[in-house]
Amino acid sequence: MFNSTMLKVLAILLTVTMTTGFTNDDFNNADTQDEIHTGCDPGYVINQDNTCQTCYSGLYADKSLQQCLECPLNTYSDKAANTNCTECPWGKRTVDKGTRSVDNCVDVCEIPATINSYYEKVETNELLEADRRVVAGEQIILQCIDDEHKVLKTEYSHLIVRCTATFKTITLPNTCVSSKEPAEEELSGLICYDSCYKETSGGKTRFVKLVGGGTVIVDSCPLAECRADEDTCVSVSYTDTFKDIERTHFSCQKSSLFDTEKICTLSGAAEDEIEGCNVERCDTERCNDPDSVKTTSSADRISVTIITVLTTVFATVVNAEI
Questions:
Q1: Distance separating alpha carbons of residues 157 and 274, to the nearest angstrom
Q2: pLDDT at position 30
Q3: Which stretches of the chain drop beneath a pLDDT of 70?
Q4: CA–CA gap between residue 133 and residue 63 (Å, rounded)
Q5: Cα–Cα separations (whole angstroms), residue 18 to 6, 100, 171
Q6: The pLDDT value given to residue 298
Q7: CA gap 90, 206 in Å, rounded
């Protein structure tokens, strides 16, 4: 049984516990302090030790995830503590995510998907996956490979291509030819500018060569010796109305092919572009010279059309009076 001394000690302990116990105010204060401690300013996220971490340039603070995330493609952040990223100026894009400056918003080219081949950078030999972006103007190597991913020795392997800021996208060959030696074919001896397009848009010009089922941008159209049954140099000019590009196709042709519509179609002209398609033929060496071909601007075409209409109307009036 408890004696009087023990009862007194027990009473003292109960009194201390009741006077020092947690109250509702204590719990409320604890929650408030914790909330204040773990809350971070905009542009900051909470660390595991409950400290606030700033999100640096190239990143932004995602409030729901409480993480610093990279700026998406075509955006940038050039300072710390960002809650969102800024879009690039119109027409400009970024090569990678996490861009830190508007200076990295540039003209880019996307690497296409390929069959039996891959692309790499000229300077670093870095492998470029499909849809990878590179800065416009960068030189890229096409490498043809076999089923064991060994580089094949073909006329297309180690082909250097380049995308330009003028046209912003790059059209590259998407196939490689067999490594077997091609059979020898008879040639006519006539040399023409062949398998090449001259394209003009917005006052700027580029040359595009047909290669292996695709195209590459080149500095100038190449010369080639025509096949035995080809005895005429041809230049076919028309307007790509969809892309608003003046296009001239240079090639070797048979002189027996007089069908202008067919030649225009073979050169890539659409059905609604054939009417304005012009075919020039010549039979002397290098006579279809790209430098001598002049393209016609939209304004010039409109002027020519107006003059033609006025001339026709005038002639009609004169004949009526006579």
A1: 36
A2: 31
A3: 1-38, 163-183, 212-214, 294-322
A4: 30
A5: 19, 60, 83
A6: 44
A7: 23
27, amino acid identity: F
d(CA 131, CA 111): 5
- Output phi, psi for 81, to 5 deg: 60, 50
CA dist., res. 25 & res. 260, Å (int): 94
- State phi, psi for 162 to the nearest 5 degrees: -145, 135
Segment 195-198 long-range contacts (CB within 8 Å, at least 24 positions apart): 195/222, 195/224, 195/250, 195/251, 196/221, 196/222, 196/249, 196/250, 196/251, 196/290, 197/247, 197/248, 197/249, 197/250, 197/268, 198/247, 198/248, 198/250, 198/290, 198/293, 198/295
- Specify the 3-state DSSP secondary structure of 239: strand
pLDDT tens, 57-90? 999 999 888 999 999 999 999 999 999 999 999 9
Sequence-distant (≥ 6) Cβ neighbours of residue 153 within 8 angstroms: 179
Residue 14 tokens read as: 């109960």
What is the pLDDT, as a whole number, of residue 234?
94
Query: How far are the Cα atoms of 70, 110, 134 from residue 130, in angstroms, in the given order?
Result: 21, 8, 11
Half-sphere exposure for 124 (CA within 13 Å, toward CB): 6
* Cα–Cα dist 9/4, whole Å: 9
In this prediction, residue 266 carries a pLDDT of 85
Strands (E), the chain: 44-46, 52-54, 59-62, 67-70, 75-76, 86-87, 108-110, 117-121, 127-128, 133-135, 139-144, 159-162, 187-193, 196-201, 204-211, 214-218, 223-227, 232-240, 245-253, 278-282
pLDDT of residue 179: 46
CA 111, CA 169: separation in Å to the nearest integer? 9
Alpha-carbon distances of 51 from 61, 70, 81, 106, 262, rounded to whole Å: 15, 21, 15, 37, 74
Strand 139-144 and strand 52-54: the pairing is unpaired
pLDDT for the residue 169: 52
The pTM (predicted TM-score) of the whole model is 0.45
